[in-house]
Write a structure and sequence with these properties.
- The protein is an alpha/beta fold.
- It has 12 helices and 13 strands.
- The protein has a 7-stranded mixed beta sheet, sandwiched between helices. The chain has a 3-stranded antiparallel beta sheet with strand order 8-9-10, with no helix packed on it. Strands 11-13-12 form a 3-stranded antiparallel beta sheet.
- It is globular and about 55 Å long.
- The termini are far apart.
Length: 319
């Protein structure tokens, strides 16, 4: 935690040079619910002068470690949103995913958070997993909606290098038809989709900040930050990070890099793309998609009507 604090001070100096305040906080990338709330106290006290009013402060939490006491402690610090890594309410699927919690633990943790006073609660669901059936996924969705949440993140299982499933590619199998059905089911139950993987009556300000291409600090081993046309990468090796958390690799972006990223982010979310970003040819391509009913044009902003086609649409616009 001391290494984290050192880097945080370093980042605040960089960002405060441009008189930027902190609009949202997201504690994640690991298992924050295994860290005692009192260990965050000094950090929260230090950043207080930088915080905007009515700031959204989110913490991720695993159901097996998000005890009533931990949730109370985080609420006392000022955390006002919890994102639970539930992934499924099916006992067998949780074992396949190597999760340490049971379905009941997830339900208890979410209900406890509501009792304590958290108004904004989210949970993650994983699909496209070996053994998934429509019945299983429907039960996950139905169970989620029986709980006091106002946000769901739905992710397809992806196999990445260095993960537990690296040598088991058969674990993941996404089918577009099933994905479309899952998204439609969540929307029909009352949570509007505002990004390819996110649905909510409450839209996370932190998530929207990324899609609007706002600047952000990345504090912690392996975190990523962005300021103007530069990205910052702290050391991903935890031991080396603890040794010197201010060794940060920088990456310079071009204006074209920024534009392409804004296109991809805008097409996969409710943010859309402002017409001013388009070249003459790109605007012609966009108009074709409006005529084909694939894009909407409102107040000079192009909006994608099917986030599952986001990458294809972006490539079409920029080709």
């Amino acid at each position: 935690m001391s290494a984290l604090f050192i880097q945080l001070k370093h980042e605040l100096l960089r960002f405060n040079a441009q008189k930027k305040s902190i609009e949202t906080i997201f504690i994640g990338g690991g298992t924050p619910s295994t860290v005692a709330p009192e260990l965050y106290t000094e950090i929260f006290e230090y950043i207080q002068p930088y915080l905007k009013e009515n700031i959204e402060i989110t913490s991720e939490a695993n159901p097996n470690s998000a005890t009533y006491e931990w949730l109370e402690g985080m609420y006392s610090l000022g955390v006002n949103r919890i994102s639970f890594g539930v992934q499924s309410f099916d006992e067998k699927k949780l074992k396949v995913l190597n999760r340490a919690h049971s379905p009941q633990m997830a339900k208890d943790a979410i209900n406890n958070a509501k009792k304590i006073g958290f108004k904004n609660l989210s949970l993650d669901l994983i699909y496209a997993t070996l053994g998934d059936t429509k019945e299983l996924i429907q039960n996950d969705i139905d169970t989620a909606f029986s709980l006091p949440i106002n946000h769901i993140s739905a992710y397809a299982l992806t196999i990445e290098e260095g993960t537990a499933f690296e040598h088991k590619p058969q674990m993941s199998s996404e089918q577009l038809e099933i994905t479309s059905w899952i998204f439609k089911s969540i929307i029909e139950k009352g949570l509007p989709q505002y990004e390819i993987s996110n649905f909510g009556k409450y839209q996370s300000s932190h998530n929207l900040g990324y899609w609007k291409y706002k600047d952000y600090m990345g504090v912690g081993a392996g975190a990523v930050g962005k300021l103007d046309l530069k990205r910052f990468y702290p050391n991903p090796d935890i031991e080396e990070y603890i040794e010197n958390s201010c060794i940060i690799r920088e990456e310079s972006l071009t204006s074209e890099d920024k534009k392409i990223e804004q296109f991809f982010l805008g097409m996969r979310s409710c943010v859309g793309i402002h017409a001013d970003l388009f070249s003459l040819n790109e605007r012609k391509q966009a108009n074709i998609l409006v005529e084909e009913n694939k894009l909407d044009l409102k107040a000079n902003i192009f909006y994608n009507k099917d986030y599952l086609l986001a990458d294809e649409i972006t490539l079409f616009l920029t080709s």
